[in-house]
Design goal:
The protein is built from nine helices and no strands. By secondary structure, it is mainly α.
């Protein structure tokens, strides 16, 4: 008995009901993925592609599902940016520079990012003050401890000059 490495070609969509089943399967997976938080279009595309490859579903079915999700407003990059930034500012308190970088990694266009940040101002000084208070920064700490806290803020994307300026202005 010999086996061939060739795959049987998929049938044309009108010959059977399989594309409808595949679309339903991908939509259910997309709804499940959206239950936890907003997703960018790129995140959803990558997730659906992974599911489609695993289950031998054609790329055009993924595109149909993505268009359906966008049409029904399940995927909206503007809403994703707003949700993502507010979550990051509330929980992780990162600088606008780092937030922009993370949004780019999520596949958000530069135009959408700049549009959001031009209409929503983020006061870095206030964020730095909050973090300095959270980490119990004071002039009474030793130089080594002060530097640890400052380095922690730098890793969150704040510039050294802004941190020093906030410290000099007083907490």
């Amino acid at each position: 008995m010999t086996y061939s490495n060739t795959k049987k070609p998929k049938e044309h969509p009108q010959k059977n009901n399989k594309p409808k089943e595949e679309t339903t399967f991908l939509l259910q997976n997309a709804y499940f993925f959206l239950r936890f938080r907003e997703r960018s279009e790129q995140e959803m595309h990558a997730y659906l592609q992974k599911k489609a490859q695993k289950h031998n579903i054609d790329e055009w079915v993924v595109n149909i599902v993505l268009e359906d999700l966008k049409k029904n407003n399940y995927i909206n990059d503007g809403r994703f940016i707003e949700s993502f930034v507010s979550s990051r500012l509330r929980n992780k308190q990162k600088s606008p520079y780092v937030l922009k970088y993370e949004l780019r990694k999520k596949g958000i266009s530069e135009e959408d990012i700049e549009s959001f940040f031009s209409s929503h101002t983020i006061h870095e000084g206030n964020l730095i003050k909050q973090l300095l208070n959270k980490y119990s920064y004071s002039q009474r700490l030793g130089k080594k401890e002060q530097n640890k806290i400052i380095n922690r803020l730098i890793r969150r994307g704040f510039r050294y000059a802004d941190i020093k300026k906030t410290i000099e202005e007083g907490l």
